[in-house]
Design a protein that fits this description.
- With about 210 residues, the chain is of the alpha/beta class.
- The chain contains seven helices and nine strands; from the N terminus they run βαββαββαβαβαβαβα.
- The chain has a six-stranded parallel β-sheet.
- The chain starts with a strand and ends with a helix.
- The structure holds fe (ii) ion.
- Fe (ii) ion (FE2) binds next to loops.
Length: about 210
């Protein structure tokens, strides 16, 4: 079954779908592209302080609407956890880890500002997740241009899987990110591809450049 392991289609939780209408549109697009199951991964950041409770409520709401519209897409509630001092320790202390497929946890780093990682040591957090029985998945490593290939490999060695974003190889995030994605892909480093679907603009890009419609 075709699974999208990274999406922002739940309504009103982050910078993804803002309304139920947006969510239904994006869910419909995923089914058009052949997906039957999607992991819903709203951000856990300073700006978007989601908890499993908020995610589960939004997930139920969207499930109901999908059923009413006869859109066959299975929603799996989870989150995308940013490894920054303002949120990650709270997540750990509160037990706010919401894994998909029993134990997968999607983590992300700041895209452009590594100083925001502060005193968090991402590799140590990956090892901690593994020690707790989780399977950490690092979201879109190709977008962190401050990480070298060797550091990406160190994430793998520490037990993380790597997830490429749909559209990166087509240049959706620019030439530098495309080049990095190609290098990681050529080295066989990716375990997952996720849409990271946020909006209609993402869907238009995928329609035009990835699925060729
Ligand atoms: Fe994301």
């Amino acid at each position: 079954m075709k699974v999208d392991c990274h999406s922002h289609i739940l309504p009103g939780l982050d910078d993804g779908a803002q309304t139920l209408e947006d969510s239904l549109f994006l869910a419909g697009k995923l089914t058009e592209w052949g997906y039957r199951r999607v992991v819903c991964t709203p951000h856990s950041t300073v700006k978007y302080r989601n908890s499993p409770a908020t995610v589960l409520v939004a997930c139920e709401l969207l499930r109901g609407e999908l059923a009413r519209k006869c859109i066959e897409l299975e929603l799996i509630p989870s989150m995308e956890y940013r490894l920054v001092p303002e949120t990650w320790p709270v997540v750990k202390e509160s037990g706010w880890l919401l894994p998909w497929e029993e134990n997968h946890i999607l983590v992300e780093l700041p895209i452009r500002n590594p100083e925001k990682i502060g005193d968090i040591v991402p590799l140590a957090e990956v090892r901690w997740l593994v020690s707790e029985g989780y399977q950490p998945v690092l979201a879109h490593p190709e977008r962190y241009l401050y990480l070298s290939m060797d550091v990406c490999r160190a994430f793998k060695d520490a037990g993380a899987q790597l997830q490429r974003n749909l559209g990166t190889l087509e240049g959706m995030y620019g030439e530098d990110v495309r080049a990095r994605a190609k290098s990681l892909d050529a080295a066989g480093m990716y375990d997952w591809v996720g849409s990271d679907l946020h909006s209609r603009e993402y869907a238009e890009y995928f329609d035009e450049f990835v699925f060729g419609r």
